[in-house]
């Protein structure tokens, strides 16, 4: 079936060729969405091999945010030295030196990230800054208290819920914003948790693009006239002012579907507009 709006599975994306002499780590790096799909930002999926090191670098033209899907690493951002684990979101402002070391000897470090409002990696202003000094990679140098960090590191478990209205189609079990304007970000990283038989009804965002990805579970999605299966590993691009909805049709399994409101600091800036319920006719292809 031909789709009007891009739906990309990470397994269908060819890994980029990484230049290790430019500080890139051993592993895989995939550009999932960018200008080729109409997106104003670049969305990536990265796997650092066990013990791999992404050396010191910066992006002079954009903020970067990433989420730790799985693994354990030591991250440096400016003066910060911090351990990161599955469930952490890290915000790195434009022009700030940063690096990453996979601390696991046997398992990869898996990340999802965004170069905010850079439509291709080439436009991010990537600048390789050299090796990481051994004393920086000593885990004993890490900052022990998150509140002492200069740059924001947020874990899933510490994010407050955002108040939403069931009268406007918000039926999912909870919704939050792990990274938003309160952290200095100009793009909001949101998180939706859908229990069994939960549907986010028809709506649109007048002032922002949205990217939604399936972190866990499966669903059924509508964007414009498209009707698609939305499975773990899928990334869905939704242009601004475009009607969309998302349904978890499972009787038992949850659907976790985070994503980005690109170019706004939170849901309240997105121009959210409720359109109406998802009908049996909308779901008939799935049935």
Structure commentary:
The protein has 287 residues and is an all-beta fold. The protein has 2 domains: 7-157, Sandwich (Jelly Rolls), CATH 2.60.120; 160-283, Jelly Rolls (Sandwich). 3% of the residues lie in helices and 45% in strands. Strands 1-19-16-21-14-13 form a 6-stranded antiparallel sheet, with no helix packed on it. A 6-stranded antiparallel sheet has the order 2-3-10-5-8-12, with no helix packed on it. The protein starts with 6 loop residues before the first strand and ends with a helix. The model has no long low-confidence stretch (mean pLDDT 95).
- CATH class category label of the largest domain: Mainly Beta
Give the integer mean of the pLDDT values.
95
CATH superfamily of the largest domain: Jelly Rolls
Q: Which descriptor suits the 3D outline?
A: globular
User: What structural class is derived from the secondary structure elements?
Assistant: mainly beta
Radius of gyration: 19 Å
Low-confidence stretches: none
Helix content: under 10%
Number of strands: 22
Topology as a string of helices (H) and strands (E): EEEEEEEEEEEHEEEEEEEEEEEH
CATH architecture of the largest domain: Sandwich
Report strand order across the widest sheet: 1-19-16-21-14-13
Largest sheet: 6 strands, antiparallel
Oligomer: single chain
The share of residues in extended strands comes to: 35-45%
What's the end-to-end separation, in Å? 16 Å
Task: Enter the CATH topology name of the largest domain.
Answer: Jelly Rolls
Tally of individual helices: 2
Number of domains: 2
């Amino acid at each position: 079936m031909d789709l009007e709006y891009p739906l990309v599975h990470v397994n269908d994306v060819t890994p980029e060729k990484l230049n290790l002499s430019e500080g890139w780590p051993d592993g895989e790096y995939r550009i999932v969405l960018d200008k080729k799909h109409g997106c104003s930002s670049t969305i990536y999926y990265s796997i650092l091999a066990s013990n791999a090191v992404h050396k010191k670098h910066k992006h002079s033209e954009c903020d970067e945010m990433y989420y730790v899907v799985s693994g354990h690493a030591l991250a440096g951002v400016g003066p910060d030295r911090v351990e990161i684990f599955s469930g952490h979101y890290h915000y790195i402002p434009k022009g700030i030196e940063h690096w990453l070391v996979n601390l696991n000897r046997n398992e990869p470090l898996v990340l999802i990230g965004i170069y905010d409002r850079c439509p291709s990696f080439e436009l991010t202003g990537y600048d390789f800054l050299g090796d990481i000094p051994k004393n920086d990679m000593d885990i004993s140098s890490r900052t022990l208290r998150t509140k002492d960090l200069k740059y924001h590191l947020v874990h899933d478990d510490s994010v407050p819920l955002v108040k939403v209205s069931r009268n406007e189609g918000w039926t999912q079990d909870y919704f939050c914003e792990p990274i938003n304007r309160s952290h200095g970000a100009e793009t909001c990283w949101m998180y939706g948790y859908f229990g069994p038989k939960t549907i986010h009804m028809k709506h649109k965002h007048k002032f922002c693009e949205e990217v939604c990805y399936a972190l866990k579970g499966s669903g059924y999605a509508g964007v414009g006239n498209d009707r698609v299966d939305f499975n773990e590993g899928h990334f869905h691009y939704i242009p601004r002012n475009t009607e969309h909805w998302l349904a978890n049709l499972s009787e038992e399994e949850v659907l976790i579907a985070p994503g980005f409101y690109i170019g706004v600091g939170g849901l309240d800036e997105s121009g959210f507009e409720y359109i109406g319920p998802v009908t049996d006719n909308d779901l008939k292809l799935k049935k």
